């Protein structure tokens, strides 16, 4: 029976993390290549700005490099990095004044067939309204909602990444859903 691919990746991560903590730059570079794209997508969803997201991920990896000796192998490297990036994004969101960006939520990919101009305009309007609605969420609600609804993470994983109880994570997602449902009532 072949190994579970996720388990194999965690084993590889554990080996790379151990080597990186001993000063192996190439091992850390491999971890960055493996986890960077996923973390960039997360940060872009949370911050709604690609440039800020790139900065947040880069700063997170620099912080992780410095803190590798503190890394406890009771969690996966990817989970640890998710938490660092999430916390960095939360700090950025808390520090910024509310700004509505149109690229906060990516538009769904077009189907193989031609999309009518009216349907495309309706889709852009819905994305714009969702972007505006997400701005009114607290940073904590926004992070929990994105991790749950966009990334599909469990409440347990969200609680671990954000550093709150599962009940608090559930409450934040619930409140975010309620606010977004109220804000998007015209789209029902």
* Major beta-sheet overview: none
Work out the number of β strands: 0
Beta fraction: under 5%
Task: Based on Cα principal axes, name the global outline.
Answer: elongated
- Counted by DSSP, the helix tally is 8
Kindly report how far apart the N and C termini lie: 48 Å
Overall residue-averaged pLDDT value: 80
Based on secondary structure, the structural category is mainly alpha
Description:
The chain is mainly alpha-helical and 188 residues long. It is 71% helix and 0% strand. It has helices spanning 5-21, 25-47, 50-67, 77-95, 117-135, 139-150, 155-162, 166-183. The chain is elongated, with a radius of gyration of 18 Å.
Give a quick summary of the entry:
The protein is mainly alpha-helical. The protein contains 8 helices and no strands.
Tags for this model:
single chain, 188 residues, mainly alpha, elongated, disordered N terminus
Summarize the SSE layout with pairings.
Layout (H helix, E strand, L loop, with lengths): L4 H17 L3 H23 L2 H18 L9 H19 L21 H19 L3 H12 L4 H8 L3 H18 L5
Helix pairs in contact: 1-2, 2-3, 2-4, 3-4, 4-7, 5-8, 6-7, 6-8, 7-8
């Amino acid at each position: 029976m072949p190994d579970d691919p996720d388990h194999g990746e965690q084993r590889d991560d554990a080996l790379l993390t151990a080597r990186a903590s001993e000063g192996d730059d190439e091992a850390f570079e491999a971890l960055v290549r493996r986890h960077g794209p996923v973390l960039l997508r997360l940060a872009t969803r949370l911050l709604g700005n690609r440039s800020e997201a790139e900065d947040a991920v880069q700063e997170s990896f620099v912080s992780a490099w410095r803190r590798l000796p503190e890394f406890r192998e009771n969690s996966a490297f990817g989970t640890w990095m998710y938490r660092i990036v999430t916390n960095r994004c939360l700090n950025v969101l808390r520090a910024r004044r509310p700004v509505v960006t149109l690229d906060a939520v990516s538009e769904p990919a077009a189907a193989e067939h031609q999309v009518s101009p009216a349907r495309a305009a309706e889709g852009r309007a819905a994305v714009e309204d969702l972007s505006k609605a997400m701005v009114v969420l607290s940073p904590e609600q926004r992070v929990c909602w994105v991790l749950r609804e966009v990334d599909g993470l469990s409440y347990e994983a969200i609680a671990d990444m954000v550093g709150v109880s599962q009940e608090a994570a559930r409450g934040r997602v619930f409140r975010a859903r309620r606010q977004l449902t109220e804000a998007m009532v015209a789209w029902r």
